[in-house]
Design goal:
By secondary structure, this protein is α/β, with parallel strands linked by helices. About 25% of the residues lie in helices and about 25% in strands. It has a single domain, classed as Archaeosine Trna-guanine Transglycosylase, Chain: A, domain 4 (Roll).
């Protein structure tokens, strides 16, 4: 997988959906910038894409002020055209997300505790370059992200 010239992956922002690691979720997009990002992801980035969520869904702007600071590295499983203006994407696959995280040199991935057994069944190759943090709730995520450790 190659990154673009500034080292980043394509990204989309969602106004009314939050994507969590380890789930598969249909995502429907209509904005042209999102369609372009998905096309880039599928064509040039091994289907890897960053998914961000709007803080205020009513605002259709993807500015830094209106996006949560934690994004999710996702894998596009399929692209299904619904009409000329709407395309549905299925994003998911925990194993694929971990492989994608390795591919873009992530050092740490935060996962729901309920995925621990599944992740531990994966080969050592998939897990060896990543620090895996398992959490039970969003408070534990915040504690990890904002601790001095």
């Amino acid at each position: 997988m190659s990154k673009n010239s500034n080292g980043s992956l394509p990204a989309i922002s969602l106004a009314d959906t939050i994507i969590f690691p380890g789930i598969t979720s249909p995502v429907i997009t209509v904005r042209e910038v999102s369609k372009i990002a998905v096309t880039e992801s599928v064509s040039n980035y091994n289907r890897s894409i960053i998914v961000a969520t709007h803080k205020t869904p009513e605002l259709d702007s993807a500015t830094a002020d209106n996006l949560y600071k934690t994004d999710v590295l996702s894998k596009i499983l399929s692209v299904i055209p619904i009409s000329d203006d709407v395309v549905r994407r299925n994003i998911g696959g925990l194993r694929k997300k971990l492989v994608a995280a390795q591919g873009v040199n992530f050092s740490c991935v935060i996962l729901p505790e309920e995925n621990r057994a599944k992740v531990e069944s994966y080969s050592h190759e998939i897990k060896k370059q990543l620090k895996l943090i398992f959490v039970n709730n969003v408070t534990e995520v915040a504690n990890y992200l904002f601790s001095d450790a």
